[in-house]
Amino acid sequence: MNYNIALLAITEILSALSIGVIILYATYKILDYFGRKKLGIVHSNTSFSIFVASILFAVGLMVSSVIQPIISSFRLLLNTADTTFELMSHFLGYGALYVTIALLMGIFISLSGVVFYSYLTPIDEFKEIRNNNIGVAIIVSAIIITLTLMSRSGVNLLVESIIPYPELPPK
Question: Could you tell me which of 26, 1, 16 has the C-alpha nearest to residue 99?
Answer without folding.
Answer: 16
